[in-house]
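ingest -> validate -> predict -> emit
validate: passed (alphabet ok, no gaps, 143 aa)
predict: started
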Amino acid sequence: MTARISYDEVAVGTELPAQSFPVTRAMLVQYAGASGDFNPIHWNEKFAKEVGLPDVIAHGMFTMAEAIRVVTDWAGDPAAVVEYGVRFTKPVVVPNDDEGAVIEVSAKVAAKDDEARTVRVDLVAKSDGQKVLGMSRATVRLA
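emit:
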């Protein structure tokens, strides 16, 4: 696979299609099994509250992975992402109900590197109206 977006056709300021990602307790349990991260703050409400959290929270790496989907879907190739980093600013609180939580992600091309033919994409990820990732940036090699 290669990126389906042409470097020459992208300008600084290009907005990627925003997406919303649901998060349920069942998804957190599945992620725990796949990742091996069974920290009880991600599935046990009683424990999460005992350690001072408002409720069960999503894994940080789960949140990070959901957010980058905006970029990989746009580029058309997950391997086009050559670098990705975030700061975790707020947890994604996942209530034990039929709705769970939602991670809302928007992104914009913030810079171009003509020599490397890469773009820097800045992402904004929010849940319940609060920014959950800070300094969320990806470097993407385009076609």
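The mean pLDDT is 97.
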